[in-house]
Amino acid sequence: QRATGVYALVPREDLWVEARKTKNGEFRSEDVKEKAEKITDLKKQVADGEISFQPGEDILTMALEKPEHPGRVQATGDGVTITSYFGRAKRKSIAIDIENIVEEKVDKIVTQRMIEFRKEFNDSQFPPNRLQSDRDSCSDLGEKQDQSRPVAKDQSTPIARLSKVHFTVYYFLLFLQ
């Protein structure tokens, strides 16, 4: 609330730099000079849009490489708190975090199961795309295959034992390869 007036017009990083200069305009130490140069570089990067800040961060906190002391904000005067200067930090919804965690776990489980299915079907002795039919491949749909060549419906073959679900997974895995 006291950050209005002069403090609101002059950025606090500029106040910090000016407070560390002597009457001659020179910096008190090399360390302060390096920090001031870093502030100048960061101001250019912000102007170019290369840097964005998290809540509670600004050019001065990045240049000094340390967070603000709890209960006060440097270069703003008496009575200015972190909350009044930076505002309250926006909280993420817990539901969104839980949703992201569940989604990651489901994706991991699905991927793991697909790898297991692929391994199981690759290890099996299934002839690819050799389903038995009572029609010739070139015959009309209405014509039956010649009865002199009966189709063997041996239930001992691996393909004959598969259910619809297995067929679906098998062809899905073939499609992925």
Automatic annotation (TrEMBL):
Region (Disordered): 125-155
Compositionally skewed regions (Basic and acidic residues) per UniProt: 132-147
Protein name as annotated: Uncharacterized protein
Organism name: Citrus clementina
